[in-house]
Amino acid sequence: MEKNMSDLRQRFYIEDCPVRGEVVHLEEALQTILSQRPYQPAVQILLGEMLSATALLASTLKIKGRISLQIQASGTLKWAMAECTHLGEVRGLADYEDDPHFQEASDSSTVLKTLQNPVLFINIEPEFGERYQGIVPLDQPTLARCLMQYYDLSAQIPTHIVLATTTERSGGLLIQLLPRNNEEEQQLIDEDIWPRLTMLTETLKSEELTQLSANEILYRLYNEEQVKLPEIEQLKFGCTCSKERCANALIQIGVDAVRETLAEQNPILMDCQFCQARYTFTAEEALGLFGEHLS
Ligand SMILES: [Zn+2]
């Protein structure tokens, strides 16, 4: 299969220095996701940034599973979510009411400033093991700034994130100063490296982040450093829905609600809003989830 070069993640390291980073680009996946609903421009931009951000954050995970960012709010935007798995599969969705403020946007600040009582969750769901949920205060002007603040305060890993999106293509860049464990090592590194790298990173323009290749971006920013590039990883649209997950959702709502649903719709049809897949449950299957039979 031909590699799709428009949706990818490039990890990088700076030689002799405890810094790692990632550059991500999403194009086909972004367009697939944005075509699922008629989103207003500012919501498209917010989703693009959230998708790039999850693709960046997924790279920091050491587990198999998925990471998602989820905004919940009252106001015209109800919720927005973006998810990336360890396989580099991304999906996203938002629910909102038309808002004249959403007609244009250059970054996530357009939507963020309209939110009422917003909460941003970072969810980490390993394939096996405990789920984790962090809450990120949405009190900075952009999504990137909110996430940076979260890393600095909660994770205590100095992290710099830049996000930029058009309705065609989204880009993101993350650099992290990795924890060092012994004093000797601390003395060996160049103390100015982190302030220097973050300052350089801040000079990246939105158009550069969305339009240049990962190589060009890294050269443009860090050509005075020795940048090491492992192999590029592919990102793509992918959905984690399944019949099993739908069954779990039915179990969650309970047998009475399932009986009520069956009275109106038999078989029960469940459409995945992320990918439009349709799952069908006959009455026998749906009630069988509760160990019950048709009566
Ligand atoms: Zn799906």
From TrEMBL:
GO CC terms in record: cytoplasm
UniProt keyword list: Chaperone, Cytoplasm, Disulfide bond, Redox-active center, Stress response, Zinc
Keyword Chaperone attached: yes
One BP term from GO: protein refolding
Molecular function via GO: protein folding chaperone; unfolded protein binding
Pfam entry (one): HSP33
Protein name: Heat shock protein HSP33
Gene: hslO
